[in-house]
Amino acid sequence: MIKDLHSLATIPHSFFIVVDDVGWWCGKDQRYKNGPSRSGLENRRHVLADYKAIIALGKSLDMRIKCGFVIGEWDRSNILARVRNSNKYGSGWDQASRLDPKIDAVRDLINASQDYLELALHGLVHMYWDDNGRMQHAEFYQRNPQGGYVMTPPDISREHLDAYFEIYRQNGLQAPVRSFIPPCFQYVYSQGRDQLSAILAEYGIEYVSTPYASMGWTSDEKPRDVALENGIITVDRTTDLISWDVVAATPPDVLKKSFFGLHWINFLHNEASRNDETVQAWIRYFSRYQHQYDLLVARDIAMASTQALYKKYTRLRLDHEKIVLDFTAVDQLGAVALESSLYLNIANAKKPQPNQAAILHIKERNESFTTYQLVRRMPAASQIVLALVDAD
């Protein structure tokens, strides 16, 4: 008789890498002179090799790493000169005369490497300049002196988003942008129509990830782990283990059962020709996340966010020699981009056999357990039953 459900089967936590502040060419922190913080790379400009570092990390895990992309320095026709509160120069903004000569080569590399990186909305210039021209943290939410955040007015937020996607198209970047990382992690979770998530949904954003520790909320209680707002799956990336401004950071000793947030320069070197040294250290660290019973190395943001939602809201129980999965709570949430697949780790002593409501595929065999992809047949049943038989 099976008694211990967790040792037999589990819906593993979703592990996924999110990298912030990709897209900058000049990395210098210029807040001291009313500019943005940028990526924090002080000793050189960003180069093609810095994008290759992301790709190498993605290839090592077969992961499409989510890259928070700041797009202002890609502005080829000075669009931001007419976008309110977007930069300190106002109508005098001129990026077109200062485009990096490698911009087309980087664009081509990004387009050719979509299997290993995915660009996410992370703002125009990351910050907000008020009507007096003073920089404030951050682009879509600013700190309220009385506590909490004040949202950028909806019409201005839409101007910023329109400009972002216009610059994106102008550069010939191909993959759809479907996720968002709040600049400076200043964000308010809301299921209502009065906050940013409602506007993001208008622009096709399906996923948000941010540390909940710095997130505001309008709900009765602060969400935990993962939640839904205006159809968007919003995942707690948890607090980053490495400071944003550390170049060539040493990987930590601990493993996180959550999204793993990094900033671009954390795995770059001050000498671009030596990027591989720091990337390899991070590759060795992230290899420890593979083949873990409580962790799923997610392929992309859709798989990672869907798994997080299933992990929290699916009721998993034993019924004699059967596992019953109840998806009622998941389905009631109304996630726009919920995928039909979730992943289970089941001890090798038992072999699961699904009923007609699902299809089961083996994703990976490990020494003591097997990772299964469970595909819900559509329209999805609220319950799926896995009969357990002894393995050969």
Overview of the structural elements:
The protein has two domains: 5-12 and 314-390, no CATH class; 14-289, Alpha-Beta Barrel (TIM Barrel), CATH 3.20.20. Helix content is 21%, strand content 27%. The chain is built from eight helices and 23 strands. The protein has helices at 5-8, 48-61, 103-112, 154-170, 196-202, 275-286, 301-313, 328-333; strands at 9-10, 13-22, 65-69, 117-121, 128-129, 135-136, 141-143, 149-151, 179-180, 187-189, 207-210, 215-217, 226-229, 232-236, 259-263, 295-297, 315-318, 322-326, 341-347, 350-354, 358-365, 369-376, 383-390. The strands form seven sheets. Strands 2, 3, 4, 15 and 16 form a five-stranded parallel sheet that branches. It is globular, with a radius of gyration of 22 Å. The mean pLDDT is 96.
Question: Which descriptors apply to this entry?
Answer:
392 residues; alpha/beta; TIM Barrel; 2 domains; five-stranded parallel β-sheet; four-stranded antiparallel β-sheet; globular
